[in-house]
Amino acid sequence: MVNSDRKWSPRVSETVRHRSCLASYRLFGDKEARILVLGLDNAGKTTILYRLQVGEVVATIPTVGFNVETVQYNNIKFQVWDLGGQTSIRPYWRCYFPNTQAVIYVVDSSDTDRMGTAKEEFHAILEEEELKDAVVLIYANKQDLPGALDDASVTEALNLHKIKNRQWAIFKTSAVKGEGLFEGLDWLSDTLKSRGR
């Protein structure tokens, strides 16, 4: 549920779809951050993006390439890049790594069969030189589905306790119900502000 006391004002921007690498894009303004939303296909990345931007669930199709939207929240203008998670697209993620301040890694908590793949992709991201200074927010998504792992179980499955020298946090979320998303964004905005980003 979205708390009406939150300082959130969605701003509609053009949705861009592209299949090739782009140079980094910088927004104009006092406080801004470039955020990548990564994770396997069908984790709920695009649903989360539009839930954060317009405050409701929007019908989506699997992302081929990327979606980019601006989300204004807690006096920060987030430029949020939602990258497709299909196996054939993942090698191109690195094209979007430069100038990224944070990664939101979305995990389908109900898809226990692919948790190992989610872990491998997550730790590969952590090894990327261009993301060494990025903070990491993990959304243990789809908590509304039967059999979904809780945040402690996802922490164990992804070996999050092995993360060193990096700020990170995990939140249980349901993009469909809007639960946990803004708590995660609160942590992210506070963390980025404390780092002077």
From TrEMBL:
CDD domains: Arl1. SMART domains: ARF (SM00177), RAB (SM00175), SAR (SM00178). Keywords: ER-Golgi transport, Golgi apparatus, GTP-binding, Lipoprotein, Magnesium, Metal-binding, Myristate, Nucleotide-binding, Protein transport, Transport. Mg(2+) binds at T46, T63. GO terms for cellular component: Golgi apparatus. Transmembrane segments: none annotated. Its main location: Golgi. It comes from the Eukaryota. Belongs to the small GTPase superfamily. Arf family. This is ADP-ribosylation factor 1.
